[in-house]
Amino acid sequence: MKDLSPDDHALLDQCEQASLDLLVRNLSPHGILAASRTEAAVARRYTRIFGRDAAICIMAMAGSGVPALEEGAIASVQALADQQAANGQIPKYVDPEGQDADFWYLGCIDATLWWLIAIDHLRGLGRVPAGRWAPGEALAIQWLLAQEHQHFRLLQQNEASDWADIMPRSGFVLYTNALWYEVKRRFGLANAEETKHHFNHLFNPFQRDLPEYHRARLLRHYARRGRRDPGMYLSFVNLSVVGDEGDVFGNVLAIQSGLADTDMAARIVQRIGEAGASVPWPVRVVLHPLSQQHPLWRPYMGRHQQNYLHQYHNGGIWPFVGGFWVMALAQLGLHAQARAELVKLARANAHGGWRFTEWFHGKTLAPMGMAGQSWNAAAFLLASKALGMAASSPVR
């Protein structure tokens, strides 16, 4: 690739190998741990198999050609399946020894969504028989359908109950419903087109097309009142309360799942670029962090001193989300931009001696959170593969 220097190519090769090595190191006999085992990671329970983290890792591990990772991908799904609740819900995380399953404070709806995506990925690669996990899969889908609005065909949830687990998003949440549409598409579930239709009306209320459903029109009125078009999807929509902080991950997933049409996808990419969200590394997960004076601020956002301005889910830089950003750019055919972002992503993972930092402060760039994050490695590998940049790729 003429737009990359020899040093860039060398860095990408090094990051690919470091990513594979990290995933192998973070494997347990029962599956992939969220982070490398350190005293801090043990204390904060990062040495668990998380539903969302593991699923993202599974998509990189399966098909890697590394036997330990191929086996670990299947083991990770099984570990979560073994602790599936009687009602079908997949835990936020499970203890690798099978002694503990956690469902967070107000639930963890995305763990179930990601688990289903991981199953479909493994089946698509022919790694498991079609019927493996079928009873649990049916139960998980039934649990999700029980939380689907019967007209909007969107999932409903409590505050702080997905990956952004100390953010005040509730009701209809962008990130969750982008995943829900992806699950519907993969599993051929009913009412997928209705989900797509209402997704675009509720999360993009500034479009000219007026919803036919009278309750959707009222939600649209509340969402628009006193606001300008942000140029991207709202992060959540509740009755008279919405999120316009600029949720990068949710918007990127909307592109990847096919929910955003060509024009909307271009607007999202433009908005993220204008905000400098990937400078110097991809990518800040919120474009307009919430201050303590903001109406949406919650006391729990200060837990562990984490979610203040430009920190954690409130504007921190998350390299794993950077991987999804690169994949979205590649999907849109913006290959030169995607390659440049991939190099920046490799630099983020390399920072601190290949620390694979969980997140960086959005202003000071201080490394924060846990070292050795498995999904950082996985997202880099997925992004590299999407661009044909992996060492094993014939496109390179």
From TrEMBL:
Question: Which SUPFAM superfamilies has this protein been placed in?
Answer: Six-hairpin glycosidases
GO biological process entries: carbohydrate metabolic process
Q: Which domain of life is it from?
A: Bacteria
Q: Does the keyword rRNA processing apply?
A: no
Q: Does the keyword Flavoprotein apply?
A: no
The signal sequence is: none
For this protein, the record's Gene3D superfamilies field holds: 1.50.10.10
What the entry lists under InterPro entries is as follows:
6-hairpin_glycosidase_sf, 6hp_glycosidase-like_sf, Glyco_hydro_100
GO MF terms held by the record: beta-fructofuranosidase activity; endo-alpha-N-acetylgalactosaminidase activity
Q: What Enzyme Commission number(s) does the record list for this chain? A: 3.2.1.26
Q: Which family does it belong to?
A: Belongs to the glycosyl hydrolase 100 family.
Q: What is this protein called?
A: beta-fructofuranosidase
Q: Which organism is it from?
A: Pseudacidovorax intermedius
